[in-house]
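Data card: per-record layout.
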Amino acid sequence: MVRIIADSTCDLSKELVERYKVSILPLHILLGETEYKDGVDLTPEQIYQWSDANHTTPKTSAVALHDAVDMMRTILANGDQIIAFCISEQMSTTGNIFRIAARELEAEDRVSVIDSENLSTGIGLLVIEAAIMAKQGKDRQEIVTYIKELRKEVRASFVVDTLTYLHRGGRCSSVAALAGSVLKLHPKIEVKSGAMEAGKKYRGNIQRVIQDYVKEMEEELLHAKKERVFITHSGCDTAIIEKVKQYLQSLEYFDEILITRAGGVVSSHCGPGTLGVLYIK
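The structure for this 281-residue chain is written out next.
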């Protein structure tokens, strides 16, 4: 049997992790000198409080090698094979940690590591596809081949409410952050070829901005894989989330509209109020 591992940046809810029998390994987040496990002993709200108090962005680091080794050893002991998904290798060394773990266990012939070339539920979409195939009894190489073809079709983007956190993380100049605040600018962040890029800049009330952002994707949404679409947010007003959900429902296209909360890694860099609609083209 093929078992699926993913790092915590896939932002899948507990319900989805259990439904698809995915094993999650947390990245690490440092608040000053104190280290936490993403999604285990730290909430996004705690990150925001610390970041605002210290006027800086937390540092993040890859999954721990010993955690990866322990998880893989347990799975391999049952005679299973492993596909391990990591956040884009342009953003983290987690993928390399997975490979080292497989090497230490002398199981490189039973473990495949997939660079998602993405983040958040952009990874989650691929993880679910792989988990479904594993449940259907597909072999490891067949799954890997399919997923590597599919990953270029993942569409992951977010609209950011505040530029403060991007500025603190060095992804936005102080002048741009100040101008953005004054002009109420909300950039669209897109994942392209494994990297985050700033796209269109929206202006105005965040609720209207998010509605415009989603509606502009309508044509592509109506040609997406219809099984599922994600609404992933870092702590948005429930009314905004509900309006996005209602709009997607009005398309009468997707089998499932999934709402998930972004974990600590995305939240650290994008800040509260960020929302994205993610799907496979």
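Known properties of this structure: Confidence is low (pLDDT under 50) at residues 167-183. The two ends are 29 Å apart (CA to CA).

See the next section for split statistics.
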